[in-house]
Amino acid sequence: MSNSQGMHSPVEQFEIKPLVELSLGGYDVSFTNSSLFMLLAIGVSVIFLISAMRRADMIPGRMQGMAEMMYEFVAEMVRSNVGSEGRPYFPFIFTLFVFLLFGNMLGLIPYSYTFTSQIIVTFAMAAFVFVGVTVIALFKHGLHFFSFFVPAGAPKVLIPFLIVIEVISYFVRPVSLSVRLFANMLAGHTMLKVFAGLAVMISGAGGLAMAGSLLPFLALIGLTGLEVLVAALQAYVFTILTCMYLNDALHLH
Amino acid sequence: MTENTRNRLTAIAIALQALISAKAFAAGAREPGLPQLDIATWPSQLFWLVVLFGVGYLLMAKIVTPRIGAVLEERRQTVDGDLEKARAASADATKIRADYESVLEKARIEAAEFAKQAAMEATKKAEAADAKIAQKLSNKVAKAESKLAEAKTIAMANLNEVAAEAAMAAVSSLAGIKTSSAEARKTASSIATKLAKRETN
């Protein structure tokens, strides 16, 4: 209740609040609400996966079935998009998917924090993928890697232009990869907050007007369902694009 | 479809937000701006991202994925083994069935052969018995015929004698001519021969 309308700003939810003040080499590295939810995403997923596999039955129960399904889902994604050469990168891609999925999902719980709505976080991950994939490509193919920017079978006249386009599109990859996730989370959570705030504001008017708050409230319920879908979908999109970039790096064209 | 709806809703949300912010601004509230663009928070976020994602990666790579992978691999092998066993059992069953059927077929052929032989033997026996009986009967017939013929010759011989004697008696009583019995017998037999000839003719 920061102002007279009893209304929070819809972007206030994205504020970083330090929980434990820390500093390292002159930088502020406080443990914040964002860090807490990163820790929870890793902690919850690892505890879930380990406890689900504790008994490791031949015929899986519900929990084990879910853990195995998650594993198989990512394994199949790597297999079909990268092939057998993608095997060494499977743990990374699995961690990426689980981290994003749990981060997005935990962020949907009221009063929690969505660290994937932070552009610096998504950009850091996208940049890591971009740099990693480029290094893998250079290691594997050497200078031949640069043929990646020359489309096969293009008319000779067009090649300079196409190289420019290909190079730009290559370097835009980390930007589009990070902005896609960030923007989806930002828009989704802002929207939820606006509709929730609207419902509270209208109900605050009292009397008959209170019935009017039902409308934004119902919209909020629908939007929450949509955001659950978006949370899973964006984790999937980020992961599958990483697989595709890795495939490009390993096999060029 | 959902993306479209979502974009429209986002536009509405942003418009509402602008409205609300304007109100908040009018009320003298602090205008925060987008917290994501506050560079001061970035070092901490990057630091914890690297630390926690790194720890998460190590846990996933060293504990979680090998464990799940091992369970899945074990299950795959068990299922494959079971399938292999089932295939072997099925092949065994097929073989046993084929064996059973071949034995059955053999027994059927043997039985048929046996029945045929038995029938043949029975026929042979019956034929032999028939032949024996026919032989016996024909022997009997032959004997009877020979006996008959003997009886006939005896009877014929007797008849000649009777005829000669009757003729001798008739001649002596009618013509008073005495003939020797030998002559009479000779005449009678010649007549009998003549008669027999005529009979046969």
Could you walk me through the main structural features you see in this protein, from its secondary elements to its overall organization?
The complex is a heterodimer of chains A (about 250) and B (about 200). Helices cover about 65% and strands about 5% of the residues of chain A. Chain A is mainly alpha-helical and about 250 residues long. In chain A, strand 2 and strand 3 form a beta hairpin. The radius of gyration of chain A is 22 Å and the shape is globular. The termini of chain A are far apart. The model of chain A is unreliable at about 1-5 (pLDDT under 50). Chain B has helices at about 1-25, 40-175, 180-200. By secondary structure, chain B is mainly α. The two termini of chain B are about 135 Å apart. The longest helix of chain B is centred in the middle third of the chain and has 134 residues, at about 40-175. Helices cover about 90% and strands about 0% of the residues of chain B. The chains are: A mainly alpha (about 250), B mainly alpha (about 200). Chains A and B meet through strand 3, strand 4, helix 1, helix 2 and helix 3 of A and helix 1 and helix 2 of B.
